[in-house]
Structures are given as structure tokens and as C-alpha cells.
Backbone:
């Protein structure tokens, strides 16, 4: 893990150590706290932000972890979909470096445009802008700067963790918590010269950092966000 | 539950004094413009007469009249452009003189002000005596304009009383008598022309008739403003009197010889004085909400711009506005000519207490505001904003970025309306502005065209999202839809087409009049 500074991270680490040592005991049940419960206990420190129901099964916490980085390859729609539910829940969000993002599509996904700060062209101040926004908003959707150096990525991650802000990054990132891609995209309502683009069915694949070599798949409808099938996993966890 | 004409549940209206100085914009004109007998005067704006003096009125010139008609009636009419700032400045001495008699004056507009009657009347020995003292004070201010004074329960009734007063005698409506005083007045007195028109159509002609309507019926039919109007008509105006903080001039001016060329240098050299300006306001319990910056350069160019802050201006915020105004759109750009003079004037200030929590509500909102303002200082005013949706045919027309701190522009069109050319279904996630050139070909590899009758030349077979990119199979398509663009040169049509490429990605394409295809949007 890179640069664990700042109080919240230290608290979390200590808790992890204690869980590993089996010395944290759940007050309610008297049994040692499971790994899942540890994440839950860390909740107030690093909050979990809701995502569209059809995406929740892809992520171990069922949402975006505050301080987490999620890399989306290719699809702008998928990045916007990851941000949408947190925004709908009333949290402030930000969009950085995506000048061509469709505002209407964001709104259709459920994002609240009045609580979404938009910085279309951060230029060379990318890391500074993302770091500043992280102090105030809960989730940021940003186009990754081309070839970001691991050291700089580490500094951005440290600031995100300090502030409990999740980053959905469009493009490459050295070591994201998860890499997501649009595995399949199908359109209903359109044929050979008739109808129009209507229902959009997508399959999203997610590769988690802690489940390397294994991919989870979710099928959902966009922009509605409803799940079409239970989440499946393919491949074995490298341990 | 509700009885006809009830005003239950409302506190009795506050006893109010209103002073009205008729034709104030005329009295605010400089002495030399007003001097001389037999001069007819009019203050005008946007081609219409706003106010006139007695002589002009006697020659048939009235407020609201078109300029040409006014000049036709009175060829000697002297015209002066309206200047709200001049009106305000000229009213200052009057306000100060009146405050000698009674403090807590509320300025409604230059030439119209009000105050609470109870305290001062008790102090000076009755309402008639208070009115006399106020009139004498106004006279002593030396403007020559005598106020009409009205005293009644509630601001609205006192205002109507002032309109009925003469320069010599105030109109004092006894306590509890406002409803009866207002009842015979026409509904036009409410100063809400649309409401008055509706009421007259319903056969409700006087304030008394209006006051007698059921409260809930008025609320349902005319909304909250109608409800307020009904309470006013009933002599139960719920608006309290809020003293206006004394308006002192808050401004700084810096001059340089020779002029300064670098924006940073300019900002640095005025920093200390801007900080003084902000703390001088703070001493009076005020914060600046609008500042006006006037910059004059060596070549005689003068640019003035008002900047509104969503919250309130700290010293750094003002310095940012200085930078933005001088730099224009491009950060880091040099000035076109050295700056010789810069004036920062606070044009609107507010009581600091109402801003303690910020206009944005809780602490979280305040944090957002601070962070976004910092990003603005870094990248420029227009570089941070929020999306607003508006009506339009193409996806790029349907959205705009409103710079942080500015209100949404007025007149946004309703995005939900069925705009011609707008397609149902999901909106594109990526909007190309301007549209990005693409290629669409038929099976033989020939570029696809659309006939004048709106038919595709063949079935679309391959698609290249960039002109040089490897062509992809077209999996499905819909359209073409003809799109008449208002601004299109010869009224030529453009066409829209949706297609799905071999990867399942949806596209919104357009064919322009020159026969080239471009992408307006991508759906993922």
C-alpha cells in the first residue's frame, strides 16, 4: 500500500491488525468480527457511496469506497453510471477533464446536476484540481491524465483517502481498487432502418485489486440501472 | 375552516410611516439642469418617459409615454437619461436628515422610504407631530422636494395614504382603520397589473371586494403572491419594516504612473487596500455581495464590470475578480495596454449575520464553495461551473455550463418540451461540439447520401468514427430524420441518423448540406 498518512488511514490500519489478530470482538454477538464487519466498522471513517443497483454486486462494499480509485476503460457512460447514484443521494460530486460529457445523459442516470461541479479543462493542474475538489465533494469522475506517474498517482490517492472522496477515473491508473469495462452493449428498439435507440442492455466486467485474475460480471439496463441478471464471477482468485 | 375574508393567524400589521417624494428622478438632476423658470424636464430610459416635472406634465407629457410622442406634445422638453445611481446619491442627504428625527429608516427606492411609527411617535409626542418634524427635516435637506407622508397600520396602507397626502397635510389612518381606508380603492392600487386584470374580469373591482374573498380560494387561484396581495388589501400587510443599513460609499481607487502591465503586479499592489476595504465593511457588520470594477488603461480604454458573489466577497475573492476582468478569457494573457487606474466599488452589501452560515446552507456546502472558488482562482472564472439543461434540437444545444457563482441565465428553454428533431430514448453520454467528422459507406464502399426526398442512397454498411480509422460493420441503424435548421443558409435540410457499430456502440450522426457526415454524440 502506498503512503498511508493521515489519521483515518491509521485508524483503519490498526483495526485491520486487530482483526487479523482476532482480538476485535463484536459487541453484539461476542464472536470475532469478520472481515466484512471490519469494513463496516470502518464505515464512518471511509464511507461507502451508493451505486446503481445493477452495479452494486460488482464492488466488494456494494458501492464506491470513500478514498477508493475505480478505473473505467473506454466507456464514458459507465464512468457516469458509477457516479450517478451517489449524486442522486444528494452528495456533491465533480466531473474533471471530460469536456464532451453529455449533461442530459448524466441527468438520465440520476445525477443531480445542481450538485455536480464541472471542470472541463483542468490542464496541467489536474492533480491539484482533483485534490482540492476532494476536500469538498464525495465523488469525482475524472479523465486520467495521459501516463500519470505512479508516484503522482500515489499522492492523489493519499489525498483522496484523507478526505474520504472516491475517484472514478476514465482511462489508465497504476493500481486502482477496481478496473471496470463495458463487456457488452446491446440496443433494442433499433433495426435495419427503423425505430430508434431504445433500451440499452450492458454487461459490465470488474476486476478487483484484491481478486486479481478474476472478473465479476453484471448485466444491467442503462440509464435505469436495474440489474438484469445476478452477478457472476469468472476465473480463480490468485492467492 | 377558513372564513370569508379572514386574516386570522396573522399578527396585527405594524404601524408604519411612508414618505414619498414625487418625481424623485427629476429632483435628483443636477441643480443647473433644473434651474430656470419654464423648463420642462423628463427623465427617460429605453425610449420611454420615466418621470417628468410639473410643467412637462401640464403640457401632456406623462410617465410611460413614448419619447417621440412626448417630444411631439412638448417640443421644448429637455431629456435626461435615467441614472438610478444618481437618484440614490441625491437621496442620501435626505435620508441623513430624516434619520436625525427617527432612526431605523428603510429605503424602498430613492424617493420612497418608510419607518416604524410607534417608537418615534411616542418620543416626539404623537403621529401628527412626527409627520411635521419629518417634513421639516426633509425641507432642511435642501432638495426642494416636499414629501407626501402617510401613516397607517401596515406598509401597504401607509404607502396608499402617502399617495393621497398633500405636501402640506399628511394622511393619518387611525389604528385599526386600514381595512376601511383601503376598501374603496381600485385593485390597480396593488401594483400587480396581471392580478388586477384577472380580478376585474372576475368582477372584483375594489380592494374591499378582494379582501372579502376566501383566503384559501385566493391562495389556490393566485398563489403565495396573491395571498400577500389579499392581506395587503385587507389592511393586514405582513411585511415588517427592516431598517436599511446606512449606505456609505465603500470604494478604493488606485492610480499608477507609468501604468502597470502585469496582472500579478496590479493585484499585488492593491492587495492591502482591498483587505482594508473588506475589513472596513466588516466593522459595520456588512459583507460585500456585488462589487464593480472599473479599469482604465493608458490608451483611454475603460472597462467596467459588476461581479456578483454567490456568498460574499473576501479580499482574495475581489483580487480574483480583478485578475479575471483584466485577463479576460485567457489566463496568463498580457494586457493590451498598461493599466493606469483601477477602482473597486462595493455596490451591494448585506448584513454579515445573514451570511454566517453561507447562502449554501450547512458546512458541507460552504466547503464546496471554498473548494470551487479555489479552483476558479487557479483556472479562471469560467473554468468551473454546473451544468444546466435547456431546450434545443441537438445534444450540444441542450446543455450549457454556468460558471460557479453566477445565477442560471434567464430564459433557459424547457428541456422537457418536445423539441423538433429531438429523439426519444437515452441521451448520448458523449456530446461532440463541434460535431466530429466520420464516414458512413454502403456495401460498395461509396459514401452514403440522402435523397432530396429523405431516403438513404443505400443501406449503411460500414462506419469509421474517425476519418482515418478502420471501418466497422454497422449492426443496426434508424433514420434518416430530416432536420430543418432555422439558421441554415438556404433553408437546406440536414439529416440525422442513429447507428449501432459492430461493438454495440450507439452513435448519433448528422449529414450536413455539403454531404459530409459527422458525429453529434456517442451513447457510451
Residues:
Amino acid at each position: 500500500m502506498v503512503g498511508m498518512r493521515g489519521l483515518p488511514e491509521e485508524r483503519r490500519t490498526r483495526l485491520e491488525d486487530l482483526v487479523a489478530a482476532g482480538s476485535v470482538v463484536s459487541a453484539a454477538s461476542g464472536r470475532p468480527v469478520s472481515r466484512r464487519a471490519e469494513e463496516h466498522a470502518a464505515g464512518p471513517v471511509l464511507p461507502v457511496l451508493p451505486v446503481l443497483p445493477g452495479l452494486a454486486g460488482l464492488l466488494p462494499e456494494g458501492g464506491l469506497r470513500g478514498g477508493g480509485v475505480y478505473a473505467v476503460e473506454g466507456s464514458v457512460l459507465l464512468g457516469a453510471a458509477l457516479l450517478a447514484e451517489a449524486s442522486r443521494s444528494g452528495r456533491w460530486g465533480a466531473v474533471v477533464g471530460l469536456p464532451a460529457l453529455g449533461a442530459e445523459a448524466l441527468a438520465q442516470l440520476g445525477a443531480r446536476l445542481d450538485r455536480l461541479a464541472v471542470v472541463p479543462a483542468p490542464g496541467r493542474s489536474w492533480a491539484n484540481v482533483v485534490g482540492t475538489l476532494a476536500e469538498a465533494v464525495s465523488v469525482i469522475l475524472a479523465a486520467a491524465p495521459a501516463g500519470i506517474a505512479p508516484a503522482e498517482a500515489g499522492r492523489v490517492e493519499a489525498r483522496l483517502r484523507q478526505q474520504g472522496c472516491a475517484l472514478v477515473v476514465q482511462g489508465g491508473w497504476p493500481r486502482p481498487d477496481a478496473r471496470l469495462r463495458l463487456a457488452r452493449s446491446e440496443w433494442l428498439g433499433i433495426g435495419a432502418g427503423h425505430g430508434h435507440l431504445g433500451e440499452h442492455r450492458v454487461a459490465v466486467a470488474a476486476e478487483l485489486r484484491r481478486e486479481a485474475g478474476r472478473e465479476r460480471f453484471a448485466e444491467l439496463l442503462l440509464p435505469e440501472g436495474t440489474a438484469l441478471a445476478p452477478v457472476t464471477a469468472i476465473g480463480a482468485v490468485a492467492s | 375552516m377558513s372564513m370569508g375574508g379572514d386574516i386570522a393567524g396573522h399578527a396585527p400589521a405594524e404601524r408604519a410611516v411612508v414618505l414619498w417624494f414625487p418625481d424623485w428622478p427629476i429632483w435628483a438632476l443636477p441643480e443647473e439642469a433644473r434651474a430656470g423658470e419654464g423648463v420642462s424636464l423628463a427623465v427617460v430610459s429605453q425610449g420611454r418617459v420615466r418621470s417628468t416635472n410639473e410643467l412637462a406634465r401640464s403640457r401632456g407629457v406623462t410617465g410611460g409615454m413614448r419619447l417621440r410622442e412626448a417630444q411631439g406634445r412638448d417640443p421644448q422638453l429637455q431629456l435626461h437619461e435615467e441614472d438610478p445611481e444618481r437618484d440614490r446619491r441625491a437621496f442620501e442627504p435626505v435620508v441623513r436628515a430624516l434619520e436625525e428625527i427617527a432612526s431605523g429608516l428603510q429605503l424602498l427606492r430613492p424617493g420612497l422610504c418608510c419607518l416604524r411609527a410607534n417608537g418615534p411617535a411616542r418620543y416626539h409626542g404623537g403621529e401628527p407631530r412626527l409627520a411635521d418634524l419629518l417634513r421639516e427635516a426633509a425641507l432642511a435637506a435642501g432638495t426642494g422636494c416636499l414629501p407626501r407622508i402617510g401613516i397607517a397600520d401596515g406598509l401597504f396602507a401607509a404607502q396608499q395614504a402617502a399617495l393621497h397626502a398633500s405636501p402640506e397635510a399628511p394622511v393619518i389612518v387611525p389604528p385599526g382603520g386600514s381595512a376601511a381606508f383601503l376598501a374603496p380603492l381600485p385593485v390597480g392600487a396593488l401594483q400587480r397589473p396581471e392580478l388586477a386584470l384577472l380580478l376585474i374580469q372576475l368582477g372584483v373591482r375594489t380592494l374591499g371586494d378582494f379582501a372579502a374573498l376566501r383566503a384559501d380560494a385566493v391562495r389556490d387561484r393566485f398563489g403565495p403572491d396573491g395571498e400577500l396581495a389579499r392581506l395587503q388589501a385587507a389592511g393586514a400587510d405582513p411585511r415588517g419594516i427592516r431598517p436599511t443599513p446606512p449606505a456609505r460609499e465603500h470604494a478604493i481607487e488606485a492610480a499608477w504612473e507609468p501604468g502597470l502591465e502585469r496582472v500579478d503586479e496590479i493585484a499585488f499592489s492593491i492587495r492591502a487596500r482591498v483587505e482594508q476595504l473588506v475589513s472596513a465593511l466588516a466593522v459595520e457588520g456588512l459583507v460585500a455581495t456585488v462589487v464593480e470594477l472599473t479599469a482604465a488603461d493608458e490608451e483611454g480604454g475603460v472597462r467596467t464590470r459588476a461581479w456578483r458573489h454567490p456568498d460574499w466577497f473576501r479580499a482574495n475573492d475581489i483580487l480574483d475578480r480583478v485578475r479575471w476582468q483584466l485577463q479576460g478569457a485567457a489566463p496568463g494573457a498580457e494586457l493590451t495596454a498598461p493599466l493606469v487606474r483601477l477602482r473597486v466599488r462595493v455596490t451591494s452589501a448585506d448584513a454579515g449575520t445573514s451570511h454566517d452560515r453561507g447562502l449554501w446552507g450547512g458546512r458541507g456546502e460552504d466547503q464546496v464553495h471554498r473548494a470551487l472558488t479555489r479552483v476558479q482562482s487557479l483556472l479562471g472564472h469560467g473554468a468551473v461551473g454546473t451544468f444546466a439543461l435547456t431546450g434545443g434540437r441537438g445534444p450540444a444545444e441542450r446543455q450549457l455550463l454556468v460558471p460557479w457563482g453566477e445565477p442560471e441565465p434567464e430564459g433557459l428553454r424547457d428541456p422537457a418540451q418536445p423539441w423538433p428533431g429531438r429523439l426519444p430514448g437515452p441521451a448520448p453520454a458523449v456530446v461532440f461540439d463541434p460535431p466530429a467528422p466520420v464516414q458512413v459507406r454502403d456495401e460498395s464502399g461509396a459514401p452514403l447520401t440522402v435523397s432530396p426526398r429523405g431516403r438513404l442512397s443505400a443501406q449503411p454498411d460500414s462506419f469509421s468514427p474517425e476519418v482515418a480509422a478502420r471501418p466497422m460493420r454497422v449492426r443496426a441503424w434508424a433514420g434518416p430524420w430530416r432536420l430543418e435548421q432555422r439558421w441554415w443558409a438556404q433553408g437546406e435540410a440536414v439529416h440525422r441518423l442513429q447507428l449501432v457499430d459492430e461493438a454495440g456502440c450507439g452513435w448519433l450522426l448528422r449529414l450536413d448540406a455539403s454531404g459530409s457526415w459527422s458525429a453529434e454524440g456517442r451513447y457510451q
User: Anything to note?
Assistant: The radius of gyration of chain A is 18 Å. Residues 7-20 of chain A form the longest helix (14 residues). Residues 1-45 of chain A have pLDDT under 50 and may be disordered. Chain A touches chain B through 52 residues (CB under 8 Å).
